[in-house]
Every structure is written in structure tokens, then in C-alpha cells.
Amino acid sequence: TPLVELKNVSKVYPATVKGAPDVTAIDDVSLRIDAGDVYGIIGYSGAGKSTLVRLVNVLERSTAGQILIDGRDVAGLPERELRPVRLGIGMIFQQFNLLNSRSVARNVEYPLEVAGRDKATRAARVAEMLDFVGLGDKAGAYPDQLSGGQKQRVGIARALATSPALLLADEATSALDPETTHEVLELLKRVNQEFGVTIIVITHEMDVIQTLATKVAVMDQGRIIERGDVFDVFSNP
Ligand code: ADP
Ligand code: ADP
């Protein structure tokens, strides 16, 4: 079965100003992402990319359609049953979203605490993840002592700590310079290849898709206007 499947999903936000029209952020989108894929979703600002991410990790509810994660429809699940679903999905962000009052190690440990792992398991996993991202020597450092690229590597270590099958990367390199972007994309490639983690890459940058993704959907005004293998979609006839 596909790992993520959207069937005719729509998301309508009610008008924020009286008399203004409702906003259709996602408009009848169907999408299938297989386990092991690195799937890019590209589009201009306002296309609906972030809304799509928030629907997949169930931070928001769709207005219509089905969202299947590992074959299970999450759209109708009650809140208490969403916790294990969310723990199976890692996220990384444009602004890294690290806790500045916590050390690097304690940031990576955080999702393991939420998941209820015991102390010894947490410590071993934190060390393993920091080694994987090349920050074994920064465990005791604080986020504001790190470069942007190092912060995102901590973000990746944190996102993968609970061994999720799916990683959502929402503009994860948009705040980084080109060289650091390249390093982070290479690391994400390893995450896919060595751990078999499925990755959904949200971006407005074609370079990011071409470096990392194998499949791509192009979004515009809440719809998928083109999709396919990256090579086919971006090759000019
Ligand atoms: P488009 O994607 O532009 O709508 P396609 O010819 O690619 O046109 O697909 C036609 C329909 O088939 C889509 O609207 C969608 O409902 C379904 N479809 C195509 N590709 C996929 C996919 N990867 N995952 C899920 N549904 C798909
Ligand atoms: P993208 O990530 O591609 O920039 P978004 O998903 O953020 O696009 O936004 C898609 C559309 O939905 C935009 O028109 C945006 O203004 C609207 N939108 C997003 N979030 C909300 C919200 N919480 N309330 C109302 N409208 C929203």
C-alpha cells in the first residue's frame, strides 16, 4: 500500500473578513506517495503547500476527502488516536523550531520523552542521531551557538529520533545559503537511502526538487497542475 494517499481532498478556510469569499486552500487534490519515495511538492507562495503538510500530519482537518496514512484514514480519527500517527511523522522547518533554552542533546531527546522512552534508550538514541548528522561533539551546545546548517542538522536528528517512516520537510533549506543547502540536501538523501524514510519535500525552489526528489507535483491555487517523474516534468521539450 502507499504510505500517504490523498483522495479528493479539499480544505476551505472560512472568510476572515465578513462578506469576503471563503478561501479554498486545497481544491480536490488526489495524490499517492509510495514508501521510499522522495516526493517534491513545488509551487508559488499561496499555492496550498503548507496546508497540504498540515493536513498530512493532521494538525488540521480537511473539509472533504480521505487522507490515508499507511492505509488508515486519519481524516475521521478522534484526537486521542492521532498521537501515534503524529509520532510516526517527523517534521523539519524553515526556521528550525529548536528550543533555545535546551541543549542540542535535549532538543533531540524531546520527542523521545513525548513518546515515553526510558532514560537509557533516550540517551543511546540521542548519541546515535547526533553522530548520524555529524554533530556528536555539539551535544552540550545551545542552538544560538550553532550555524544555520548545524541547526537544521539538529532539526533532522530530532525529527528522526523516534524512527518515523515519513519525514515532512517544509521549506527546510529556504533560510540557508547555497552551500549549506547542498549539505543539508545530501544529508536528507542519506536519510532516505540509509533509513528508508519516505520524504515529502515542500519548496518553492526548483533546484531543491531537482537535487533531492524523484517525483514531483506542481501546485497552483490549491490544485495539482502537473505531476510525474522530476526529469519528465522539468525537461523542456
Ligand atoms: P492531473 O494530475 O493533472 O489531474 P493526471 O492525468 O496526472 O492529471 O491524472 C488524472 C487524475 O488521476 C488526477 O486528477 C488524479 O485524480 C489521478 N491521479 C493521477 N496521478 C495520481 C497520483 N500519483 N496519485 C493519486 N491520484 C493520481
Ligand atoms: P503555501 O504554503 O503554498 O504558500 P498555504 O497553504 O500557506 O500556501 O496557503 C494557501 C491558501 O490558503 C492561501 O490563500 C492562504 O492565504 C490560505 N490560508 C492558509 N492558511 C490559512 C488560515 N489558517 N486561514 C485562512 N486562510 C489560510
Number of strands: 10
How far the N terminus sits from the C terminus, by CA atoms, comes to 34 Å
- The gyration radius over C-alpha positions equals 18 Å
- The strand order across the widest sheet is 6-7-8-3-9-10
Coarse structural class: alpha/beta
Short synopsis of the structure:
One of its GO terms (molecular function) is ATP hydrolysis activity. With 237 residues, this protein is α/β, with parallel strands linked by helices.
Q: Would you write up a description of this structure?
A:
The chain contains eight helices and ten strands. With 237 residues, it is α/β, with parallel strands linked by helices. The strands form two sheets. A six-stranded mixed β-sheet has the order 6-7-8-3-9-10, sandwiched between helices. Strands 2-1-4-5 form a four-stranded antiparallel β-sheet, with helices on one face. Helix 6 links the parallel strand 7 and strand 8 (198-203). Helix 3 (104-114) packs parallel to helix 5 and helix 4 packs across helix 5 (148-160). It is globular and about 50 Å long. The two termini are 34 Å apart. The model has no long low-confidence stretch (mean pLDDT 95). One adenosine-5'-diphosphate binds at residues 30-32, 224, 227. Part of the ABC transporter FtsEX involved in cellular division. Has ATPase activity. GO terms for molecular function: ATP binding; ATP hydrolysis activity.
Task: Reconstruct the topology from this structure.
Elements: E1 4-13, E2 23-33, E3 38-42, H1 49-56, E4 64-69, E5 72-73, H2 79-87, E6 89-93, H3 104-114, H4 119-132, H5 148-160, E7 166-170, H6 178-195, E8 198-203, H7 206-212, E9 215-220, E10 223-229, H8 230-234
Parallel strand pairs: 3-8, 3-9, 6-7, 7-8
Antiparallel strand pairs: 1-2, 1-4, 4-5, 9-10
The chain binds adenosine-5'-diphosphate (2 copies).
One adenosine-5'-diphosphate is lined by residues 13, 16, 23, 25, 43, 45-51.
Domain ABC transporter: 4-237
Function: Part of the ABC transporter FtsEX involved in cellular division. Has ATPase activity.
Organism: Cryobacterium arcticum
